[in-house]
Specification:
Length: 409
């Protein structure tokens, strides 16, 4: 790809179903990087409360990034909420003097209140198949079809999701979960295991530590977790992350099961440094059909042996490359976990292969490749990246530039 870049005067208006201060993941990794060279406005889903009037909370996060949270009165109807959100987005554009921008969508549910915008280009970063998640809105499938028709470039959060959607857009590219290698490689530092540097809540747990880090929701195989804890009472299962969309009372309980809650991204290497094994105990259901767990490369960068259930984007490439063990039943999971601890920790060749695999992968590289594709879209072109699995891409039309209709009068 020739050296084409996105002009720094182009702002990013990002519409997300995830909150900025939730688990630090794909949107946060990418937008902190884009904000180094341009203004980024990360617009969250609205918060409904007791306020009499709709308003915006705009909070700076350093560099050029601002998190925008619409505050809406609780008693609004769906149509009133849409009208207020449309007005607030236009107000944001006016107050921040946004003239040329790219609209970036993580959720099709933002379309109803942003159709009035005229961005230089529309990006759809489809990081998950949201329609398969528990509680997905009924109109999501229809709105995604509309968004795919409006988008100038589409990214997917994994290879399997790309394969499922590749025929639905002419300019679509897979960008699986990437890695901040240096951040997680710090977990390999023996100094982090010193008593004075251990996280207090984990330091109280003695013996073999088997850890999971991520969102605990309907994608988690709770029966498997309970089964592993029962089969190996000498293993302490440490579960780090928020519990969402499921009743906390439904979580399995045992003396060797420890739920430590959500931790800041900066502290994760300290927790991982104390683990003997990392796990990805995902259920095999509709919600996990297309996931590409960010934790896979992060665990490996930390130098941890990993066992996962048979998630497609973990099997390929990590399982096929011999970097991760794959097992589904509790019995097989325990056997694989013991083999991983006995083998990987003592196998210098395994760690060397891990490092070689991760070396070309980084969020910096992902953001740079995305930026080139967006720049092409702004110019009314598309480009076939090596990741695009040989698709013959044709030019794709961009939307008309300038302001929202409400600000042009």
């Amino acid at each position: 790809m020739e050296n084409i870049t996105l002009k720094p005067h182009l702002d990013l208006l990002v519409f997300s179903h995830l909150r900025w201060n939730f688990v630090f993941q794909r949107p946060q990794h990418l937008m902190t990087r884009f904000a180094r060279s341009r203004r980024v406005y990360f617009v969250e889903e609205p918060v409904f409360g007791e306020a009499a009037f709709a308003s915006l909370d705009v909070v700076g996060q350093g560099d050029g990034l601002k998190v925008v949270t619409p505050q809406l009165p609780r008693d609004l109807s769906a149509s009133q909420a849409r009208e207020e959100l449309e007005r607030l987005v236009s107000e944001l554009i006016f107050q921040e003097r946004i003239t040329d921008f790219v609209s970036w969508y993580y959720t099709p549910m933002a379309l109803p209140f942003t159709r009035h915008l005229y961005p230089q280009a529309v990006v759809y970063d489809c990081m998950d198949e949201l329609s398969l998640f528990r509680g997905a809105p009924a109109q999501l499938v229809e709105l995604e079809e509309e968004l795919l028709g409006a988008a100038d470039v589409v990214f997917t959060g994994g290879q399997s999701l790309y394969e499922a959607k590749q025929t639905r857009h002419k300019n679509i590219h897979p960008f699986p979960s990437s890695i901040e290698r240096a951040h997680f490689a710090a977990a390999r530092d023996p100094g982090l295991r010193e008593k004075s540097r251990r996280p207090a809540d984990q330091a109280r747990i003695a013996g073999t530590k088997v850890g999971f880090c991520g969102v605990i929701d309907e994608r988690m195989d709770l029966e498997l977790v309970a089964g592993v804890a029962k089969l190996r009472p000498d293993w302490n299962l440490i579960m780090i992350g928020p519990v969402v969309k499921i009743d906390p009372a439904s979580l399995p309980r045992a003396s060797n099961l420890h739920y430590l809650g959500m931790k800041p991204y900066a502290e994760l290497p300290q927790y991982l440094s104390g683990w003997d094994l990392a796990i990805l105990p995902f259920a095999r259901n509709e919600a996990t059909r297309f996931i590409s767990p960010t934790k896979t490369p992060e665990y490996l960068a930390a130098g941890l042996p990993v066992v996962s259930t048979s998630i497609r984007d973990v099997i390929r490439p990590y399982g096929e490359e011999g970097l991760v063990y794959i097992a589904d039943s509790a019995e097989d999971f325990v056997r694989a976990g013991q083999s991983a601890m006995d083998g990987c920790r003592k196998d210098a060749a395994w760690l060397k292969n891990v490092d070689a695999f991760l070396a070309p992968r980084s969020w910096d590289s992902t953001a740079a490749q995305m930026e080139k594709l967006i720049a092409r879209a702004v110019e009314g072109e598309s480009f076939e990246m090596p990741l695009s699995a040989g698709l013959a891409l044709k030019p794709w039309t961009v939307a008309q530039p300038v302001l929202s209709r409400s600000l042009r009068a």
